[in-house]
Specification:
Layout (H helix, E strand, L loop, with lengths): L1 H4 L6 H5 L26 E2 L2 E2 L1 H14 L1 H6 L7 E2 L6 H11 L9 E4 L9 E2 L5 E4 H7 L13 E4 L4 E8 L2 E8 L2 H22 L6 H8 L5
Parallel strand pairs: 3-5
Antiparallel strand pairs: 1-2, 4-6, 7-8, 8-9
């Protein structure tokens, strides 16, 4: 605790403007792997700076057994050695957001630039609007017996394809088999992703925008 008290106290605005961060030698203290190796306090009053909260949340998804137990799709997700340093992470974050402070409504994503990626790393991550992240969330656990977006309607004896659009369920039609229903879902979902990408083009990096425009549902 005394070591923490010796660290400089910054405002959030000062943290946001950091281009380079001095390093201090510390033992890993976050999930036994993360090093808070910055010469300033990560908390501003009673609230952590948003960069620290983001970093801590990332390490939680990578190294918390409880989190992985609740979210099996993260079972093999990990973090590169470079980002085990908070100083390294904060430098990347501040460059990525252009020293503008917390990107409201934006979330850290690891698998748009490289589909299926399991490693949080500088060259593989980006910031995207929350709506984009939700649109691409893998809901494999909810699929049940049929493909994603497909259910069997006992009343009519056919398969139904639906897609969620703007918080509402959009009905895509009835089909004789799950394959045709799944194809209808894929076409609608891919079109929806393109629409959302175009709507948020101004805040997306060009590589992210291009990836979304070419996104394929498997």
């Amino acid at each position: 605790w005394s070591e923490i008290m010796k660290k400089t106290v910054f405002t959030q605005d000062q943290v946001d403007k950091l281009v380079t961060v001095a390093r201090v030698i510390v033992e890993p203290s976050v999930y036994g792997v993360g090093r808070v190796d910055v010469p300033f306090q990560t908390y501003i009053g009673d609230v952590p700076c948003w960069q620290y909260k983001l970093w801590n949340g990332m390490l939680d998804r990578c190294f918390s057994e409880k989190f992985k137990g609740r979210n099996p799709t993260y079972m093999n997700v990990t973090c590169c050695d470079e980002w085990l340093s908070f100083a390294n992470f904060i430098e990347w974050v501040n460059r990525e957001v252009g020293y503008k402070g917390k990107p409201d409504g934006m979330q850290l994503d690891k698998d748009i630039l490289q589909k299926g990626n399991l490693i949080y790393a500088p060259e593989k991550c980006c910031f995207v609007p929350r709506v984009v992240n939700l649109l691409l969330t893998d809901r494999a656990r909810r699929r049940g017996r049929w493909p994603l977006g497909v259910v069997f309607h006992k009343g009519v004896g056919k398969f139904v394809a639906t897609v969620r659009c703007n918080g509402k369920i959009k009905h895509l039609g009835y089909f004789d088999n799950p394959e045709d229903a799944s194809q209808a879902y894929k076409v609608a979902k891919e079109a929806q992703i393109k629409v959302v990408a175009l709507e948020h083009r101004e805040v997306l990096k060009s590589a992210v925008f291009e990836s979304l425009m070419d996104w394929k549902i498997i």
